[in-house]
Design goal:
- The chain is mainly alpha-helical.
- It has one domain.
- It has twelve helices and no strands.
- Helix 6 runs antiparallel to helix 7.
């Protein structure tokens, strides 16, 4: 349904547009935004503190809190951070705070420090708690590949947080948005699992590449090099997809912000799917759908 070239283009456009808004939200001039209306009189201190508090509580709960079904499959720091900022932003949008269409840049970018903290802590926590096992010195590349996979997974966490925040903040009807989000995140997680299975467990990339190299040169590819090839493929493909989700979500939210203020509801997930889909394939799909709906002569 999607191709890497299209996803890379979406990622570049969105992230290039995002950076100026982050600078606006955290520059030395507090008068060019209205973050105090959302986070109180000292927003540039409050936002990082909220992020630190959510990460600390989330990591404590994940390691030492009471056991819950599927607890180990949830990043509780990300959940707490997302919920806290969703509540604060929704209060500004829907509780009579008189949000304006030009508020979008600094409002969305204000979450960046807390989001960056979650991304940083996730791989560090995995390293600290022993998720990376020592490898023989002959396999230094595999150790690097393992780190890249962990960083890619952290980027995936950021993508899930961004799309979750967007979905929850761009709908006045929160229960309906939660249900829709849960379904989409399940599908998203399933696609990531399938990709990891194909690239890291089944070793399809390294198997094909190794067979080609051996047939041409007669040289048998070492097992550790094959494993590194799988890890690099996984990191490249999923990192591109995750960055496209982040950049694409920024773009569709920016384009739809005025509509949100006017109507109180925007289907961000559907808009994002339309953005990242290949335009040629989308036109073919729409043409085919139109042909089915037209009555027979």
């Amino acid at each position: 349904m999607y191709n890497l070239k299209r996803l890379a283009g979406v990622a570049y456009q969105g992230l290039a547009d995002l950076w100026p808004s982050i600078r606006q939200a955290y520059n030395a001039d507090p008068d060019d935004d209205s973050m105090d209306r959302v986070y109180g009189p000292n927003p540039r201190i409050t936002v990082p503190l909220i992020g630190v508090g959510c990460v600390v509580v989330g990591e404590w709960f994940a390691r030492w809190g009471p056991g819950l079904p599927f607890k180990e499959f949830v990043n509780w720091s990300a959940v707490l951070t997302g919920v806290m900022f969703a509540l604060l932003i929704r209060r500004y949008l829907f509780a009579g705070q008189k949000a304006r269409p030009d508020d979008f840049g600094w409002l969305a970018a204000s979450v960046a420090p807390a989001l960056a903290l979650v991304i940083l802590v996730a791989p560090l926590a995995n390293i600290f708690f022993g998720s990376i096992q020592p490898r023989p010195m002959i396999e230094p590349g595999v150790q690097l590949g393992t780190v890249l996979v962990m960083l890619t997974d952290a980027l995936g966490l950021a993508a899930a947080m961004v799309i979750s925040l967007a979905t929850l903040c761009f709908s006045r009807n929160w229960p309906s948005a939660l249900i829709d989000l849960a379904v989409r995140l399940f599908v998203f997680k399933l696609m990531v699992w399938i990709t990891a299975l194909v690239l890291l467990e089944i070793d399809i990339v390294s198997t094909l590449a190794g067979a080609i190299v051996e047939s041409i040169t007669g040289w048998r590819v070492p097992e550790w090099l094959s494993e590194l090839a799988d890890q690099l493929s996984y990191a490249a493909i999923l990192a591109t997809a995750y960055l496209a989700v982040i950049g694409g979500t920024w773009m569709v939210c920016k384009q739809s912000f005025a509509e949100l203020l006017a109507k109180g509801e925007v289907d961000i997930l559907k808009a994002l799917e339309r953005l990242v889909e290949d335009p040629k394939k989308r036109k073919k799909k729409e043409k085919k759908k139109k042909g089915k709906t037209e009555p027979a002569a």
